[in-house]
């Protein structure tokens, strides 16, 4: 009997990015290994689960993000930013080391880490580790809008963990180059597997009222470059400014730029929906005039695929991994140049011939990103590591 332990911590609470990926990977592992001689175990917040239903029940009972957020907001008022974020990370480590004490009584043949949190206290209890690295912000601190404390956290907590991985999965050639440069791994140790469009994104629900025609923004991290989008929108012709709005979805992910927060709050053409369900996000993609993906840096950019899949035009930055994923199926801008953003934004919103071309190319481009094929490649690496 082979034993696999999967870190399912990212699947708790309001699931975004890595959490969505973790769930997809867990379901693929269940499909392949359940009722075989491979035993799947899931770890989440100091507990072990021997089957998926038990994990899903725990997910529904997990501590609400609102409670965690309110506690963090109190600390934010009393601590300097750098000390606040370091305190959060140290608290996370101390809490989970305490919860995990004595938890791992057996040895696992393989540990799968869908993100970079790590299972604290499992050292010496796994024969091999497969790590999934979505990005390495310290490789470009400016583009990722990192604070100095971010580098400290990666240097002391995350880099040492990645160095222990026996095999690594990443999702673009851009990130693969960063991994090879940072860790000096052999090229055969790092595997690029593109994400695929997940079918469960296709259910839909009614849109909130009074959205009208809108530009969709998915995610509120500082690298999403929302402040420059707002500045560019203000440079559009009056007719376009009257016709369109900017709709933002997502939760705060790390330190937020105060100027960006103020720009979002003070702009009457901006609607901030906050965290939305998969079904509502699917509806937003289907009705958006275009998706803004003018990020300064990304590890992949799954929303580009989801937008192309439903015929939504993508306006993307021309940096990082965006051209690798979008190809010739979108419109590009210089994310640091507000005038260029405004120019390309106006084209993407009003040039019908260009929009028709992008939509057609998008339908073809997204076919290259097959979900089943992506998961098959994941399982192939897992099987080789078990052997």
From TrEMBL:
The keyword ATP-binding does not apply. Residues 213-363 form the Glycosyl transferase family domain. InterPro entries: Glyco_trans_1, Glyco_trans_4-like_N. Keywords: Transferase. CDD domains: GT4_MtfB-like. Residues 16-197 form the Glycosyltransferase subfamily 4-like N-terminal domain. This is Uncharacterized protein. It comes from Helicobacter gastrofelis.
